[in-house]
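Q: Here's a chain of 283 amino acids. Please give me its 3D structure as tokens.
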Amino acid sequence: MSMDLEVLERSDRHLRILFKNVPYPILNALRRVIMAEVPTMAVDEVIFVDNTSAIYDEILAHRVGLIPLKSDEALEKYLPPEICLKCEQPEVPSELKELCSRCFVHLTLDVRSDEGVVTVYSGDLKSDDPDVVPVSDKIPIAVLGPNQRIAFEARARLGRGKEHIKWSPVTVAATTYVAKVIIDKEACTLCGECVKVCPEKILKIEGKELKVIDEMKCSLCRQCVKVCKNEAIKINHYEDKYVLLFETTGALKPERVLNEGLKILLNKIDKFQKSLKAEGVIK
């Protein structure tokens, strides 16, 4: 049985894909890998030079860490510190590890309000790598009153969602069933009650027949089943069709997120198979 897929929706930030002949546990494993193990860049440490705003250093650092950074090029240019050969050397001092050009990108921010009120935005962050910058320059960080200042240096590195959600490349990732609407034409009286209550408007009476316009839009709410007195409608789901949908933070393109997730999942399966062979469980 061959796997088949169909792209249902696509944009710069999200993908919705129909998978056929793929076991649900495998698809759910891919979803979990996408959320937790696909690496992106995010600020890990913030060193404050000056902060006279009304917001504590810790809160500012947390806000800056949650700003998604463009990471498409970073996956090719940088290594996570835990696997960097230079940083693994025992004679390398910790302060030099933090400056490693193969692991870290440095960003700075210095905004002062002399008079009036000034809003500090993500666009005020200056990166030493033009490929690793905030996905949007309109994310608010803080509001400064008169004679207030925020100045700091930040270090960004590759990380994964299982360490902290700020490294997750997606905001939403879900797998859903595909509804299977079964209509008993002999029991149906064409009363039209199911058509009225359907929130997705997927049912329609044409001539002397009740028809399903688009099963893919069915949300499995079963409102039509509840109002049908003759039990002419049954809602089930297909055993060989599932939908994977996710929305990215903008750090990576959706296609890149899917591709990296598949690589990681296949690598895990390969390692698991090798360990089973080593233990003699399989040949």
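Q: Can you summarize the key feature?
A: The chain has a mean pLDDT of 90.
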